[in-house]
Specification:
Distance between the termini: 33 Å
Number of helices: 16
Helix content: over 70%
CATH architecture: Orthogonal Bundle
Strand content: under 5%
Structural class: mainly alpha
Number of strands: 2
CATH class: Mainly Alpha
Strand order of the largest sheet: 1-2
Radius of gyration: 21 Å
Length: about 400
């Protein structure tokens, strides 16, 4: 989650040369992290510190893991200028397929998981074909998919759930890493798993290296960078946050396996969007479709594959969700598409496309999770939770529009 903490970095090269302004803060990129910190602080105060308790932090991660997985795929779809309304139904259909394979037909869980992911890819390819090659707007195609794949789920499951799932699948959804090297003392904090702490140290080291390389690259090409003391302060704060979360998790039941999966996905997709040619093509398609076409980008292929990817991640989320409930049911994944879309927009995605980051989408998803969790801890009714989440989403999009107008007026 820490590859893109550079608040001055945008999804396209900056126009600054480094010779004029030496310090610039992109509110669009940094605002989400400030808002996240403020929301966590608010609920920490309102709950008397329960928000940051070890078990509660673990619950937030585990309970929102499938939304975070969907948010990773959704941010790519939105960056390319499209939308996917069908992911909740695909989650339900994928969970149903996995349940039938593992429970009804006793297929070994690794093979069943692989088949389920391939089914997700096929669903994504189906929708990607109509969007990319037939030219039907993604809103219409995925709206049809939302209805179609929910109907498929009902046809597979009827009005009953199927379970229980194998222990390995439940462990991936709800389980925790073992204390491989034992616990070490942390004074007043008690004991914590040494392996978990080493993972945290490695994550902090990764932050330092990636941020240092990013800064060095910007200096090399004459781009504006923040003053060195601010850069160091930013690294220190990020490192403290990572180690705090890891220590709290290690004090409870160690790292959730689903967090390990999420970390791998965030790392892989961050590298894809920041370093790979395909990732840059996604930004190009969403930023300026005509320019991307004239530049030789195979637009139809790019759009097709982002929907295939969305289908695979939806299937993965479906397996995680069904494993957590220990059964597949016809109503699974209901309204998940709304949470995933909200996470992407709250995390900094632009309505018009061309802008967004994987880490931003994860942060947006965590904001939604913290709001859900915090409102639950203070005993707020469900209608108030929906009210707050809707207000946060509206504020995020309004902030995006405001920053664009401000940037346009300053030119």
């Amino acid at each position: 989650m820490s590859l893109d903490l550079d608040v001055a970095k945008t999804s396209i090269p900056e126009s600054g040369t480094g010779g004029g302004r030496r310090f610039s803060i992109n509110l669009r990129q940094s605002g989400i992290y400030i808002a996240f910190a403020a929301i966590v602080l608010l609920f920490t105060i309102l709950t008397g510190g329960d928000m940051l308790a070890p078990q509660n932090i673990s619950n937030i991660i585990v309970q929102n893991s499938y939304i975070l997985i969907l948010a990773i795929g959704m941010i790519l779809v939105i960056i390319a200028g499209h939308i996917d309304l069908s992911v909740g139904s695909i989650v339900a259909a994928s969970g149903a397929v996995a349940a039938v394979l593992m429970v009804n037909h006793d297929i070994p869980w690794p093979l069943a998981v692989l088949i389920t992911l391939l089914v997700g890819a096929a669903i994504g390819a189906w929708q990607g074909y109509w969007v990319a090659y037939f030219g039907i707007p993604a809103f219409i195609v995925t709206l049809a998919g939302m209805l179609l794949f929910r109907a498929v789920t009902y046809n597979i499951l009827g009005n009953r759930g199927i379970g229980p799932f194998p222990d390995e699948v439940r462990t991936l959804s709800n389980g925790f890493t073992d204390g491989y090297l034992g616990n070490i003392g942390l004074g007043a904090l008690g004991g914590a798993d040494l392996v978990s702490l080493l993972v945290g140290v490695a994550a902090v080291a990764g932050i330092v290296v990636t941020q240092w390389r990013s800064r060095a690259g910007r200096v090399k090409y004459g781009q504006a960078v923040e003053p060195f003391p601010l850069f160091v302060a930013k690294i220190v704060v990020a490192g403290f946050v990572v180690m705090f979360v890891v220590v709290q998790l290690a004090r409870f039941r160690n790292l959730p396996w689903v967090l390990v999966l999420l970390a791998a996905l965030v790392l892989g997709y961050s590298l894809l969007t920041n370093r790979a040619v395909f990732g840059r093509q996604i930004y190009a398609v969403g930023g300026n479709l005509q320019a991307a076409t004239l530049s030789g980008v195979k637009v139809k292929s790019v759009v097709f594959w982002i929907f295939v990817n969305m289908g695979v991640l939806s299937a993965l989320a479906g397996i995680i969700f069904a494993g957590r409930l220990n059964q597949a049911n016809p109503t699974g994944g209901d309204q998940f598409e709304l949470d995933a879309i909200a996470a992407a927009f709250i995390g900094g995605a632009a309505v018009q496309g061309g802008v967004g980051k994987v880490v931003g989408a994860i942060t947006g998803g965590l904001i939604m999770g913290v709001i859900n969790n915090g409102m639950s801890l203070i005993g707020a009714p469900s209608e108030q939770v929906m009210l707050v989440k809707g207000a946060v989403l509206l504020a995020a999009v309004a902030f995006d529009v405001w920053t664009k107008r401000r940037a346009g007026a300053s030119r």
